[in-house]
Every structure is written in structure tokens, then in C-alpha cells.
Design a protein that fits this description.
By secondary structure, the chain is α/β, with parallel strands linked by helices. It folds into two domains: 208 residues, 3-Layer(aba) Sandwich (Dihydrofolate Reductase, subunit A), CATH 3.40.430.10; 140 residues, Cytidine Deaminase, domain 2 (3-Layer(aba) Sandwich), CATH 3.40.140.10. The chain contains ten helices and 14 strands. It has a nine-stranded mixed β-sheet with strand order 5-4-3-2-6-1-7-9-8. The chain has a five-stranded mixed β-sheet with strand order 11-10-12-13-14. It is elongated, with a radius of gyration of 24 Å. Bound molecules: NADP nicotinamide-adenine-dinucleotide phosphate and zinc ion. Zinc ion binds next to helix 7. Zinc ion (ZN) binds next to helix 7.
């Protein structure tokens, strides 16, 4: 598998889903507070990519505006501004464009292009996978894609996107000659495979939405919540504090539970599953997110959480921390895997799950 940067798509839309109007001047969709939010995202990225047509139409500078953010980047050993990246087939780019004015630039084109900055000749058509692999080689770990329509469409339909930021401005463009957010295509996120809404926020009079697209980001999102939930557990000197959340294939939460939730000795997964009808068909496509590996052996109850998960027909389990052999030697993950359940361990969140249980470990 070739490595690629984390890809974050960002755009502002009208209520009817347009990125711009059909007139020559640039349409203002957002407001100052939102531009400041975009500036913060830019400052957090190693590179910013726009399609060649956005350079021609909008002449964006693609710089970090805030001096404090630039200083923080420099202090962290990074360039003041992210690398600017574009893709062109025709090579029709004005060397005097603001894109080339400050900082470093890379242009991906089928053959050499006579502009400032570096050109990477790609031969025939520019392939996004090749672009991402090359950016990774250059040290880019976090890439922001700021449009336009063809770029968003290409990254999304290729499934090469981890996160999407959409700002909706409260007005209509009402002209189908204007560019829409995306063109036609087959998108991995359709009515049956939905993206995960992670955040919605009013910024003045516009609405900011943050969606998680890649499975790895969705998993981290829910598992973080499960770890947070484990903080609610009544303390115990003989059992771990665990949080569990059951999420269906559409990304909707079905139930959540935590250890000793009703004052007894119940486990988090047990508590969550007890809130659901075992015949609920959504369980057959669900994922259990548990801060700790589901138990595979158990002193206090007849059925282990592993057995309960299997009985519910849940096909996928994601957890943060392997059950430490403090009380019993778990083996839950092995039992689940042997029974055909997809088990994903995210050790990146194990520290947080351990921290909640520090008194026991
Ligand atoms: N509201 C927002 O957030 C926002 C943000 C950005 C842009 N916009 C708007 O979006 C509109 C531009 O969108 P757009 O779809 O027309 O243009 P775009 O995505 O900015 O650029 C399209 C161009 O990129 C190049 N390109 C794309 N894929 C390529 C590939 N695989 N290989 C080689 N070259 C490739 C081609 O350049 P060549 O033509 O040079 O061959 C193509 O014409 C503008 O109206 C702009 O204002 C809005
Ligand atoms: Zn258990």
C-alpha cells in the first residue's frame, strides 16, 4: 500500500449547492469569522491544493493570513505557509497569478509547464493517486483541498478523502450555469453508505458542517466517544471502567452503555446491548465501539460480552485497549475473530482508555 496524506476537503456553498455564480467576479459566500476558521485549518495543513480553473477564476493567494499562526508554524520548524499545489492538463496558468507570488508551489501537469514553482510532469492525464503519493514523499501529511468543483468531484469519487468541511451561506444562486459543489459521479458516500456528521456550528449567518468520510476517521470519532463515556462509570477496585457505543451502518447511534451503569456488575457492552431488541435488523450491520477489548471470560455473569456480541449478530468490533490481565485473561478479540467478526484495535486511543483506569493498572 502506498502512503498518502490525510485529505481534508473544504468549500463554501449557496443554499442551492453552488460554489460560485456564473459571473466573472468572485462570489462572496462566507464571512470574516468563517475566513478566520479557514485560516486556522490552512495553518494546520502541510499543503493546499486547488484546480487550475480556480487559479484562473478566483486568483487566490492561499496563504495563512494570521501572523500568530505563521509564527507558530515557523516555531514548529515548518515553512510560514503551506505548500501550494495545483493540477492542470492544459498548462494554461498565468505566471503572475497570486498562486505563484509567495511561498513554495508545485504544479502537476502532463508535461513541463513554463511557470514559477516546480512542475512535476506526470505524462498523459494527471492521476490523483500519483499526486498524493508524490506529496507524501515531499513530507506532506495533511492536505487541504479548496476546490473547485472538478477537484472535489475527483477526490470524492476516487474515495481519496478523509474529512469534509462545508459552509452553507443563506442565499440562492439559482443559475445552473454556475459551478455546483460536485459534478456527476459515483460517490462512495451514498444513501446507504453515509458520511458521519461530526460537528455543526453557526458562524455568524453561515452554517459550518464537518463530516468524516474515511472509515479510520469514523472509527476514531466513535471510539473517542466511548472512552469519554467510560468516565461515567461508578468507581470499582475489582473491575475496569469501560464505555461502549453501538452504531449502525448508516452512522446512527443505536445504544450506549458503561460499566456498572445501573449499579450492578454489568459490563459496558452488556449494558448497551440490553437497551436493544435482539431482533433489530440494524444490529446485523452494526459496529460496537468499546474502550476496552470485550471480555471473553467472566466470573460474575453467565455470558461474556463476546458471547453477547455474537448472539446479537454484530459483524464488527472496534476497541482501544487490550484487556490487561489484571482480573481475567480476556481473549475476547481472538474469540470474536475466530467467529468471523471483524475486530479492529486502535492502539492510538489505548492511552486515553488506560488513563481512565489508572487506579487499577
Ligand atoms: N466556494 C468555494 O469554496 C470555492 C472554492 C474553490 C473554487 N470555487 C469555484 O469553483 C469554480 C472552479 O471549479 P472548476 O471545477 O471549474 O475548476 P477547478 O476544479 O478549480 O479546476 C479544474 C481544472 O483543474 C485541472 N484538472 C482537474 N483534474 C485534472 C486532472 N486529472 N488532470 C489534469 N488536470 C486536471 C484542469 O485544468 P486545465 O483547465 O488547466 O487543464 C481543469 O480544467 C470557480 O467558479 C471557483 O470560484 C469555489
Ligand atoms: Zn464484558
Amino acid at each position: 500500500m502506498t502512503h498518502r496524506p490525510y485529505v481534508l476537503l473544504s468549500c463554501a456553498l449557496s443554499l442551492d449547492g453552488y460554489l460560485d455564480d456564473a459571473a466573472d467576479r468572485r462570489l462572496v459566500l462566507s464571512n470574516d469569522a468563517d475566513w478566520d476558521r479557514v485560516d486556522e485549518v490552512r495553518a494546520s495543513c502541510d499543503a493546499i491544493l486547488v484546480g487550475a480553473n480556480t487559479i484562473r477564476r478566483d486568483n487566490p493567494r492561499l496563504l495563512v493570513r494570521d501572523a500568530g499562526r505563521r509564527a507558530a508554524r515557523t516555531a514548529a520548524g515548518k515553512p510560514e505557509n503551506p505548500l501550494k499545489v495545483t493540477i492542470t492538463a492544459t498548462g494554461d496558468l498565468d505566471p503572475a497569478a497570486a498562486f505563484f507570488a509567495t511561498g513554495e508551489q508545485v504544479v502537476y501537469a502532463p508535461s513541463g509547464v513554463d511557470t514559477p514553482g516546480e512542475t512535476v510532469p506526470t505524462g498523459a492525464r494527471v492521476d490523483l493517486g500519483t499526486v498524493l503519493a508524490d506529496l507524501y514523499e515531499r513530507g506532506v501529511r495533511r492536505l487541504m483541498v479548496e476546490g473547485g468543483s472538478s477537484m472535489h468531484t475527483a477526490f470524492l469519487t476516487a474515495g481519496l478523502a478523509d474529512e469534509l468541511h462545508v459552509v452553507v451561506a443563506p442565499f440562492f444562486v439559482g443559475d445552473s450555469a454556475a459551478p455546483r459543489f460536485v459534478g456527476d459521479g459515483r460517490f462512495p458516500w451514498d444513501a446507504t453508505h453515509r458520511a458521519t456528521l461530526a460537528e455543526v456550528r453557526a458562524i455568524g449567518n453561515v452554517a459550518f458542517h464537518r463530516y468524516l468520510l474515511s472509515r479510520s476517521e469514523v472509527d476514531k470519532h466513535w471510539l473517542r466517544r466511548a472512552v469519554e463515556l467510560s468516565r461515567n462509570c461508578p468507581p470499582s477496585s475489582t473491575a475496569f471502567a469501560v464505555g461502549a457505543i453501538v452504531v449502525d451502518a448508516d452512522g446512527d447511534e443505536l445504544a450506549r452503555g458503561y460499566s456498572r451503569e445501573s449499579g450492578g456488575t454489568e459490563h459496558a457492552e452488556e449494558s448497551a446491548l440490553a437497551k436493544l431488541d435482539p431482533d433489530d435488523p440494524r444490529l446485523r450491520g452494526a459496529t460496537v465501539y468499546s474502550s476496552l477489548e470485550p471480555c471473553g471470560r467472566r466470573a460474575s455473569r453467565p455470558r461474556t460480552c463476546t458471547e453477547l456480541i455474537l448472539a446479537a449478530g454484530i459483524p464488527r468490533v472496534v476497541f482501544a485497549l487490550r484487556e490487561p490481565p489484571t482480573f481475567v485473561d480476556g481473549q475476547g478479540a481472538e474469540q470474536l475473530t475466530a467467529a468471523g467478526v471483524e475486530v479492529v484495535e486502535l492502539p492510538g486511543l489505548a492511552g486515553a482508555a488506560r488513563e481512565v483506569n489508572r487506579a487499577l493498572l
